Amino acid sequence: MVDEELQNFKCTNGITYSLKTTVIPNVLAENKPALVQALKDNGYETLVKEEVNAQTFKSFVKEQGWEVNEELPVYLQGIVTLYEKTSIGTRRS
Description:
Elements: E1 8-10, E2 15-27, H1 32-41, H2 54-63, H3 66-69, E3 80-92
Antiparallel strand pairs: 1-2, 2-3
């Protein structure tokens, strides 16, 4: 689908396949203490338990304007990396 630049296509079986790209924040193990401290220092201690929940953190990064600015907040830069995950979604018509 990527090579053919197709966003979606529908098969004769009634299923529509579509590409979905998701940005996923990733923290290296050695950076987790710095992430936890950065979140606490910037008023987001409610996100922090002993670990930062991956889905909650993903939503948090999105809320911080990633989709608009395509930039992490300054206090997360150098601690968190982002990567894109492309998957194929299906829907029965």
